[in-house]
Amino acid sequence: MLKLQNPQHLTNISPTLIMIKFYVLFSLVVTLCSCGKNKSNENLAAITIQANKPNIIVVIVDDAGYVDFGFMGSEDLETPHIDNLAKDGVIFTDAHVSATVCAPSRAGLITGKYQQRFGFEANGTGYGSSGDIGLSDDVLTMADVFKKNDYKTIAIGKWHLGATPSDHPNQRGFDEFYGFLAGSRSYFPIHNPSKNHMLQQNGKQVKFDGYLTDVLGNRSVRFVEENKDRPFFMYLAYNAVHTPMEAKESDLIKYKNHPRQDLAAMTWSLDENIGKLRNKLKELGILENTLIYFISDNGGAHNNSSKMGPLKGWKGNKFEGGHRVPFIVSWPSKITGNQIFNGLSSSLDIFSTSVAAAGIEKEKDLILDGTNLLPYLSGEKQGDPHHKLFWRKLDEAAARVGSHKLIRLKNYGSTMYNLSNDLGEVNNLSEKDTITFNLLTQNLSIWESNMTTPLWDEEKSWMDVTYHIHEQLMANKPALYKEPSSKEGLLSH
Q: Which of 40-44, 234-238, 241-245 comes out lowest in average pLDDT?
């Protein structure tokens, strides 16, 4: 249920905000005297609307395992601050991203629409003769919309949505970019880094000491301090826990006997920095009116020791382990905490939900494939935000309709599962339930007819590996190799 403001909230208001309220009241009295009652009422309405706009923070982590947080059941990785965020918010158990790899997943999240609508389907931002394409120039990002509506906007961390001038975050709605353009980099300082791998602030290199996760976390805290008196939109994209598996020496010592030492240390640092941000919001008295999302960009990777729990597959394939992710939504003043939501949801919903929360009217020609989650979290609406979801990356595609899931591999065939009693996707029902199978096949075909042709491919070596993994998993067999180098090693023996 929605929470209404009550007098107890006054005890959490910082002295700075009290002074602001006094100044607003004093200005209103002056306005009444000099401009008349009608003009003062207009000013008051504008001030009230601005003051009530929520801050929006999207925390997106990289390649995290489905069960690698305390709130998702992890018993060996410590995440107390993220768990507190979950306790104050809503945990989604059937949440999905729109792609199983980094770049297209982020393209879907930040535009609120299936990235296949504008050809951003393969990983990376271009390949071979295509050059660096990245985001289509005519597609709007969340930052574009929030900046247009008087929000201060910042992107922190990993971008991976294009490195050409037109795709720089400063050209895609962000007042500030404090991060790096590439898909991954070292967590420690790089001597003479490339343009795409250097840490930068609005195009200018930032030299840093220490550990990158801390550096990004510190900037998130400073940004909040700098903009505490106005609404802001923060896209906080940590590269943790993506490879390379690098952690601070102190954290490695803390987990020296841990079977997943590197991942445990990296996750601990990630949690610390999310905690720093949340504590700063609380200290400034603005946590209550800050809408925070926490999500992973795809499933855990095969090479970072992540765990998928009951899910089949991992990053890069169309089984649940590739796209079902941990997801939290927290907005203390509006959404009752300590909830679990089982409805089918998507990272595409973040755009629609955020715009609705801010009271921004969607432009008529803006296509969004996400759903506003707020009515479902308040109890105003029942059921699933989505009845259907779709995925496609080149040779592999999938469709979800209700509880049934179809996986299709080009020139191989399709399998179908009922996730309500087979979350591990073991029992292929494609021949046992042909009516449902044909329905899902038809739905996938209709969806594809509204998408566009991919604007670039991927390296053939990786496409071959991904194809092999799908073949094996669809037959309930283990993959013989998970990356090109492993395939070459296998073939050489």
A: 40-44
State the DSSP string of 66-132.
TT-SGGGT-SSS--HHHHHHHHTSEEESSEE-S-SSHHHHHHHHHHTS-GGGGT--SSSS--GGG--
- CA distances in angstroms from 406 to 109, 253, 425, 466, 474, listed in the order given: 23, 45, 10, 17, 11
> How far is 284 from 272, CA to CA, in rounded Å?
18
Cis peptide upstream of residue 244 (ω within 30 degrees of 0)? yes
CA gap 456, 394 in Å, rounded: 9
* CATH 3.40.720.10 given to domain 53-378: yes
User: What are the pLDDT digits (tens) for 81-110?
Assistant: 999 999 999 999 999 999 999 999 999 999
Pairwise CA distance, residues 281 & 214, whole Å:
17
Q: What is the pLDDT of residues 427-452, one digit of tens each?
A: 999 999 999 999 999 999 999 999 99
Class of domain 388-491: alpha beta
